[in-house]
Design brief:
The chain is built from 12 helices and 15 strands. By secondary structure, it is of the alpha/beta class. The longest helix has 20 residues.
């Protein structure tokens, strides 16, 4: 879940919330006025971390949703509707996210939510939204259980909440993709696996490990670190003594970068690999001068490979945002646009007015959303997961992330 200066993508940690608030103008008989009268205001709000160590990702999400709002208004995408932005900061804290979800649900005019950034935060919000029949679309959550239930690993998939959708692919795909690259193409055979004990990191590390061993690789050892700590010398020495030829880290870039630098300082001159949580320039800063060769996977393709993203990239630049769109910018824009399209559908089906059961109708419309977006074709399967399974492997070359392989994952 992280930032890219000229790249599009987007995960994990899995993640921003888009909120739709409808304030219809009515005449004395209670009927909505159309384009000839006052317009209905639909507020699109974003809940993601705008402060703290993951703020680069959260601000990229916020700006990208804002761009979707501007575009919808400029194009008069939904006749009779004007969109506006409302934003709240969850600080990447589950409790704060849950409080924000409750506030959004309490406002009966809220019709949909995009986000949040982190899978752990999403766990605290899902049930709140589901009870209110409020659609949720995350641009960055990657934990499989959010859409497929806790027993997904045994093949017993069951969608916990019909209100939950996401535009980023899951760690089932990302973890296996990483293991296949490290074993088949990087030719590594003995990996040391570390995670940060969080929902995103621990889940991703477990999926990676299972696939790496299935391919014939060996897990030389495992360990866990604590988020916001900075001294990982003990783990670094364990990695060195294990004889591992690589490290896989399940977590975010603040800890991942420090772990990489300290591992190499301890004498283990081996590459560290991680998921979209470490794919950020801040990882490189944290790792120090010996970071070349480190690897990361991220959902989607780099911007320069996507014709569909060129307009988004240019419009984002022209809008003059201070912060980059980061890892999840394209997915945030597409998440926002999917709800905008759902609103458009229910308004058109109701003679140009928002129906009384708008929340229910938005959820139903989300299941049928299908359009060509910034990140490719946008649609959702029976679990609410994206049908887009594009991923990319990046490598640090001359202290910058460089795409080395992009493909659509196939079993």
């Amino acid at each position: 879940m992280r930032h890219r200066p000229s790249l599009l993508l987007i995960t994990t940690f899995t993640t921003g919330a888009l909120v739709l608030t409808a304030c219809g103008s009515r005449d004395d008989k209670g009927s909505d006025k159309g384009d000839s009268g006052s317009r209905t205001t639909v507020a699109i709000g974003v809940d993601s971390p705008f402060t703290g160590s993951l703020s680069a990702l959260g601000l990229g999400i916020k700006n990208s949703v804002d761009l979707a709002v501007r575009t919808a208004n400029k194009n008069n995408e939904v006749k009779g509707v004007t969109f506006k932005l409302v934003s709240t900061d969850d600080q990447a804290v589950p409790g704060t996210g849950q409080q924000n979800a409750a506030k959004l649900v309490a406002d009966k005019s809220v019709l949909g939510v995009v986000g949040p950034l982190n899978s752990g935060v999403s766990q605290s919000m899902q049930g709140v939204f589901a009870k209110a029949n409020l659609a949720q679309v995350s641009p960055a959550n990657t934990n499989p259980a959010l859409s497929q239930g806790d027993s997904w690993g045994s093949g017993q998939k069951q969608r916990p909440f019909k209100t939950y959708f996401r535009t980023a692919t899951t760690d089932v795909i990302q973890g296996r993709f990483a293991a296949q690259y490290l074993y088949n193409e990087a030719k590594k055979r003995k990996v040391f696996v570390v995670d940060d004990k969080q929902t995103y990191g621990a889940g991703l590390a477990a999926i990676f490990s299972q696939e790496f061993k299935r391919l014939g690789g060996q897990v030389a050892g495992t360990d866990h670190l604590t988020v916001k700590e900075t001294d990982f010398s003990g783990i670094a020495n364990k990695i060195k003594n294990s004889g591992a030829d690589s490290v896989y880290f399940g977590g975010q870039y603040p800890e991942g970068g420090l772990l990489s630098g300290q591992t190499k300082k301890a004498g283990a001159r081996i590459p560290e690999m991680g998921g979209d949580g470490i794919y950020d320039p801040a990882f490189i800063s944290g790792a120090g001068k010996d970071d070349d060769g480190d690897l990361a996977t991220s959902v989607g393709y780099p911007v320069e490979q996507l014709d569909s993203a060129k307009t988004f990239v240019q419009n984002y630049k022209d809008a003059g945002y201070k912060d980059p769109y980061a890892a999840y910018g394209g997915y945030s824009y597409d998440a926002a646009w999917s709800i905008i399209q759902a609103v458009k559908k229910i308004v058109e089906d109701n003679n140009g007015k928002l129906p009384g059961d708008a929340r229910q109708k938005v959820v139903e419309a989300m299941s049928k959303v299908s359009f060509d977006g910034v990140t490719g074709h946008v649609s959702f399967d029976e679990y609410g997961d994206t049908t887009n399974k594009q991923l990319t492997v990046y490598q640090v070359v001359n202290h910058q992330w460089k795409a080395v392989k992009s493909s659509t994952f196939k079993d």
